[in-house]
Write a sequence for this structure.
């Protein structure tokens, strides 16, 4: 179980979505250690989704590969 302290409103919003209503993609920006991976882990655990961590510079080939897998 992932613990997102102080994010009750966000968790409630996510918990009230169905997989059909959930956004098809997310881009999370933030400082190192702010909880981006924790947030994503909560979502992928809840909906049993794959995760593509693209923390490095993104090339067109990588974007095409991700697009084709989803």
């Amino acid at each position: 179980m992932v613990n997102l302290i102080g994010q009750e409103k966000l968790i409630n919003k996510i918990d009230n979505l169905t997989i059909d209503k959930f956004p098809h993609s997310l881009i999370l920006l933030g400082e190192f250690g702010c909880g981006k991976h924790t947030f994503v882990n909560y979502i992928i655990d809840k909906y049993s989704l794959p995760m593509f961590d693209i923390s490095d510079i993104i090339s067109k080939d990588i974007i095409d590969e991700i697009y084709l897998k989803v």
The helical segments are 8-15, 36-47, 60-69.
